[in-house]
Amino acid sequence: MKDSYMEYMVRKKITVKDHLIRISMIVLTVFFFLLSIVIQPSLIIAGILAAVTYFVVFPSTDLEYEYLYCDKQITVDKIMAKSKRKQVAVYDTDKIELLAPVNSFRLKAFEHRTLREVPLWSLKEDDHVPYVMIYEGNQKVILDLPAEFVKMVQNAAPRKVYFD
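User: That's the sequence. What structure does it adopt?
Assistant: C-alpha cells below.
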C-alpha cells in the first residue's frame, strides 16, 4: 500500500487580546525605561525585565499551525513568530472517533460528553469551515483542514471521516 503524505500550514488570526498583550508590553517597557531615566536609575532593571518579557510573550501572539499527514498520523506543529517550532500533538487515525465539519449533524451525538477542547485552528471566519476531531473519547480538536487533507485521512479511516 502506498503511504500518503501531505502538509498544510495555516496562520492564526491575531485577536484583540493578542494586540492588547503586545501594546501593554510595549507601554510597560517604555514606561519603566523613561521612569528609570527621569526618577530612579535602579528602575532600569524593571525596564529590562519588561523588554525580555515582551520578547518571550510576542512569539506566542504570532502563530502558525502546520498540519502533517503521514503514515496514518496527523501531526500538528506550532510555529511561533516564524522562528520557533514546537510539536503540539500527534493524532493516530486509529484513535479518531469522528472527523467532521464543525457544523455537522454528526457532532450532536457528542454534545452530552465532557470533552477537552483543543483549538488548533486559525480562528478565521471566511469561506471555509473548520473540522472537529473527536479523539480518544475525551478531546475535541478543532483543525483548519483542506478537503484534500481530509480525503487522505478518510482513506485511512473511512467510517470515521465525513464531509457533510
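The helical segments are 16-38, 44-57, 147-156.
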